[in-house]
Specification:
The complex is a heterodimer of chains A (600) and B (252).
Chain A (H helix, E strand, L loop, with lengths): L5 H13 L1 H7 L11 E16 L26 E17 L2 E11 L15 H4 L2 E12 L7 E8 L32 E11 L2 E8 L26 H18 L2 E9 L9 E10 L2 E11 L4 E10 L2 E9 L2 E13 L11 E12 L2 E2 L2 E6 L3 E4 L14 E3 L4 E11 L4 E9 L15 E8 L13 H5 L9 H4 E7 L3 E11 L4 E10 L3 E8 L9 E8 L8 E13 L2 E12 L14 E9 L1
Chain B lengths: L1 H19 L2 H14 L5 E10 L6 E9 L5 E7 L7 E6 L2 E6 L4 E4 L2 H4 L10 H5 L7 E8 L3 E8 L9 E7 L5 E7 L5 E12 L6 E10 L5 E7 L4 E2 L10 H8 L1
Antiparallel strand pairs in B: 1-2, 1-13, 1-14, 2-3, 3-4, 4-5, 5-6, 7-8, 8-9, 9-10, 10-11, 11-12, 12-13
The chains are: A mainly beta (600), B alpha+beta (252).
Chain lengths: 600, 252
């Protein structure tokens, strides 16, 4: 939770005091008569948002009091109020001829008192009633700078590229703001310099420089993700399996592996770590196109060093995370598919395609061990040749990959609107691996001693049967993994039902993960008495099986009585087993909410 | 027999065609187009109210800048949930919308354009119609001392938003008084009234200060636009402001 330094608070007060002077002029927005004078406007909203989190409301989770796997207790996630927030958003703009400045700031009161260390905390307002500031825009721009058609904008701003809805793989200049799962697709503003040149009537070229990289803002539930020590996305399957086995062997010898530190390391603030973007966009044949290029970093942190320590009671894993560099070539296209004359006019279906081809930096993760049972200290023996070291495992291969969104929307009549998208590659997915080029990451990995799947262990324990005591775990024989491609496929659809002259809006939105899951394990050859004779087998479970199903359902009813007031209630239901995209506890699980908002 | 068949067929084809080619109707329509677009640019501010029986009327405020070439920039001003939304009409079938909540400009696809705007009887298409004569063949249905009544059908190969309308044109100012929108069976489903014209000092242009849209399929629900403030003429807006670039710049 960020606190507001006293100096900033004074600044905020000054800003707030200054704003009312603009309201009288800005009320009507009628500024034509004052073309060369100072024109101001004020807008924003006041909102109140209360949410109750019920993550256990997931019929796909185990009923036993524990998750189906891992060391994660259901007790880690509790039902309860997850948000009790009030926001005052102020957007203030001032224009003088070709110059314009904009400040858009959220004053957020979080509604939960912080933990008190002592009685003195009760005398601190920021502890009893915490608050924070979020600036979405603090910039100024100049139109027709130096030459006609050239605009420059400098300051903290959000630049959104791409034609798709919410999922924009070509838009990488601003980090994602995933703090509020209901505001999916929101972004964090960043300092940048943007030049736009309108060289032809409908054609625009943009050049953007972002000096300092900012990472994605993650939801509070994301900390649960680091508990999944079986989910390290090693590209080398053999090594990955071996680690599953050695981890469970280590648990018997020294205790469970716990990640006590996962520290994202930001790139140094040097010129070579700044980001640049270039975009050429325009219109032809009544369709909109753009081509873009981005050089910078992925906002998704990747592990790049792991250090493990044998401490009393458990194995302490400390992971360092980095933000890999990437080049992104983007293309988008939007238009409409003609439907002929339906009651006059051309009632075409809207469509869009957004494609990003990403060239990532290769990320490798050396593993260093300290006082580990049997294998001692030093760099991990990756190739199992008895000598420590070797080629560190790859976390992100350098192979290029593509993410895309293909979408359609259509208004059936004045009551019903529908929007459907095929999303290939969720925003948090990074690296090559999909149905075009195979490449998997584990969503669950553990030791399975039952090689003929009769419910009885066939191997002689993890330590002996799986070779842990020999120093090299036999992952081929003992590891069972739930795998999914690095890039999944999702059907995203929303239906709006408007009634009572648009006073009521019922929005039903869902995301279906159609990727499925592949379960890989060693299976004993039939008729063989030896449980170690067999082969590894993959069993694909599609999206409509219990193991492969994962879905978000997001119904919301909004009542707009007029005057800018909106009252809404709904829920975001996350369904699926813990190894699926949306059943994973780190997504935050199911939440119900009620919101009130006054826009002005 | 065969000659009689050809004659009969020719009558079927030719008679309606010749009925549509009514020079007087087209002349009246062209005169209306010319008169209603007799400015370099015009800026109007409107209050749009929709009064549902037994409910509080809803109010929307917006500003429109129009050029005779058919370009239009609409800036929503009230209520707060749509304030900052901008709609750009580049031509009858090319429209863009800036959505402040998403900080994005989106093309308005055809399927949206015939939908009521903010619960009113006015549609995005209504905002896009600048000229009628290029899209319609018009015939004089009747006339009296004050009005011509035109029956206007879409020209072959043209797909205006309304395939069949009837409108009355005032003889004193060559401007429209009423438009009736007809469905494919010729049944009137909405009517639009242009009332209380205010003319420019030199009388070269007049603009209604009140426009009513009556939806007969919704129990004669009335949506009414009332002009707010004065009419601003010829502020010198050029092509630049009717571009997506400007939409971003002015709205963002």
């Amino acid at each position: 939770m960020r606190t507001l330094p006293r100096r900033s608070w004074m600044w905020a007060l000054l800003l707030a005091a200054a704003l009312p002077t603009g309201t009288a002029r800005a009320d009507e927005g009628d500024d034509d008569e004052d073309e060369k004078g100072l024109k101001t406007s004020l807008s924003g909203f006041l909102s109140s948002d209360i949410r109750y989190s019920i993550p256990k409301l997931n019929p796909f989770w185990c009923r036993s009091g524990w998750y189906c796997h891992g060391n994660k207790s259901v007790g880690d996630i509790k039902n309860g109020f997850s948000r009790n927030e009030n926001i005052a958003r102020m957007r203030f703009s001032v224009r003088s001829g070709d110059y314009k400045g904009v400040a858009e700031v959220d004053f957020v009161w979080t509604g939960f008192s912080r933990g008190f260390a002592d009685l003195a905390n009760l005398a601190e307002r920021e502890t009893v009633d915490p608050f924070r500031l979020e600036a979405h825009a603090l910039y100024f721009d100049v139109s027709d700078f130096i030459t006609k058609g050239l605009d420059v904008r400098i300051g903290k701003q959000i630049v959104t590229w791409g034609k798709a809805d919410m999922f924009n793989p070509t838009s990488n200049l601003n980090p994602l703001d995933l703090e509020d799962t209901l505001l999916f697709g929101d972004r964090v503003s960043n300092n940048m310099i943007r030049l736009d040149y309108n060289f032809l009537k409908d054609w625009l070229v943009s050049l953007i420089w972002v000096p300092i990289f900012k990472p994605n803002q993650l939801p509070a539930s994301a900390v649960l993700a680091v508990k999944g020590v079986d989910r390290i996305p090693l590209a080398d399957a053999a090594l990955r399996r071996r680690l599953h086995v050695e981890r469970e062997g280590g648990e018997l010898l020294a205790g469970p592996t716990r990640v006590t530190e996962a520290i994202p390391e930001l790139p140094e603030t040097r010129i070579e770590n700044s980001q640049v973007g270039f975009k050429l966009g325009g219109k032809a044949a009544k369709m909109d196109f753009s081509l873009s290029y981005y050089y910078g970093r992925s906002g998704i942190p990747q592990p790049y060093v792991e250090r493990t320590f044998n401490v009393p009671g458990f194995i302490d894993a400390k992971t360092s995370l980095m933000y890999p560099r990437m080049h992104v070539l983007g293309f988008d296209w939007a238009g409409q598919i003609p439907m002929g004359k339906v009651g006059g006019g051309n009632r075409g279906i809207g469509f869009w395609l957004e494609l990003a081809v990403i060239f990532p930096q290769k990320v490798q993760m050396p593993i260093f061990q300290n006082d580990m049972p049997i294998i001692g200290s030093g760099e991990y023996d990756y190739d199992g040749d008895g000598v420590s070291g070797g080629t560190p495992p790859t976390i992100v291969p350098s192979r290029p990959f593509a993410k895309w969104v293909l979408g359609l929307d259509y208004t059936f009549n004045k009551y019903v609107f529908m929007n459907v998208q095929w999303v290939h590659g969720f925003p948090d997915e990074f690296g090559a691996g999909d149905w075009l080029h195979r490449g998997y990451v584990p969503t669950r990995g553990y030791v399975d001693l039952d090689t003929n799947n009769d419910g009885v262990d066939d191997l002689d324990g993890v330590l002996i049967g799986c070779g842990v005591l020999s120093g090299v775990g036999d992952g081929r024989l003992c590891a069972k993994e739930y795998l999914r491609p690095r890039l999944g496929d999702y059907l995203v659809a929303g239906v709006d039902l408007k009634f009572m002259s648009e006073k009521f809006l019922l929005r039903l939105f869902f995301i279906l993960d159609v990727t499925g899951v592949t379960i890989e394990e060693f299976v004993q050859d039939p008729g063989q008495g030896d449980p170690t004779v067999g082969r590894r087998r993959r069993n694909y479970k599609h999206a409509f099986t219990g193991d492969g199903f994962g879905m978000i359902i997001f119904p919301q009813l909004t009542y707009s009585p007029g005057g800018g007031v909106e009252l809404s209630a709904g829920g975001l239901f996350a369904l699926g087993k813990p190894h699926t995209k949306f059943g994973d506890p780190s997504t935050g699980g199911t939440v119900v909410f009620a919101k009130g908002k006054f826009n002005f | 027999m065969r000659a009689a068949f050809f004659f009969f067929t020719a009558c079927l084809i030719l008679v309606p065609t010749s009925a549509q080619a009514d020079p007087k109707g087209d002349v009246v329509m062209r005169r209306y187009d010319r008169k209603t677009n007799a400015f370099k640019d015009i800026t109007l501010r409107w209050n749009l109210t929709v009064k549902h029986p037994g409910r509080k009327a809803s109010l929307v405020k917006f500003k429109v800048v129009t050029r005779p070439q058919g370009q239009r920039l609409i800036q929503m001003q009230y209520p707060g949930d749509i304030k900052g939304m901008h709609i750009l009409v580049q031509s009858a079938d090319e429209m863009y919308i800036y959505l402040p909540a998403f900080r994005k400009v989106r093309r308005i696809a055809g399927h949206v354009r015939n939908q009521g705007f903010q619960g009113s009887g006015f549609t995005y298409d209504d905002m896009a119609i600048g000229k009628w004569a290029p899209y319609y063949d018009s015939t004089i249905l009747r006339e009296d001392g004050k009005h011509w009544w035109l029956d206007s059908r879409a020209k072959a190969g043209k797909t205006p938003p309304y395939p069949h309308v009837q409108m009355s044109i005032r003889k004193d100012i060559d401007l429209v008084h009423e438009i009736q929108y007809l469905d494919r069976h010729g049944k009137k489903y909405k009517s639009q009234l242009f009332l209380d014209y205010r003319c420019r000092g030199d009388n070269t242009h007049c603009n209604p200060t009140r426009i009513q849209m009556i939806e007969h399929t919704r129990g004669n629900l009335v949506s009414e636009m009332n002009l707010r403030g004065g009419i601003l003429y010829d502020k010198g807006y050029d092509d630049d402001i009717f571009t997506v670039r400007y939409l971003h710049k002015s709205a963002d």
